[in-house]
Write a structure and sequence with these properties.
By secondary structure, the chain is mostly helical. 27% of the residues lie in helices and 0% in strands. The N and C termini lie far apart (69 Å). It binds zinc ion. Zinc ion is lined by residues 6, 8-9, 11, 25-27, 30.
């Protein structure tokens, strides 16, 4: 049988993959790390930097 490994910490999990509550991650922590990486890459795009949070309402 193929061993399933957590893509974040690369820990081989015991038992069947469908026994993991957080598949394909070994734990909620690894799921959060993965999500953070994902969002981090989206936010890293520097081309559209907004100088202020709110639009200028003067005028
Ligand atoms: Zn993990």
């Amino acid at each position: 049988m193929k061993k399933t490994i957590c893509p974040i910490c690369e820990k081989a999990m015991p038992g069947q993959w469908n026994e993991w509550p957080e598949y394909p991650f070994c734990s909620k922590k690894c799921r959060t790390i993965d999500l953070g990486r994902w969002l981090g890459e989206n936010y890293r795009v520097p081309s559209q930097e907004t100088p202020s949070t709110f639009p200028d309402e003067e005028e």
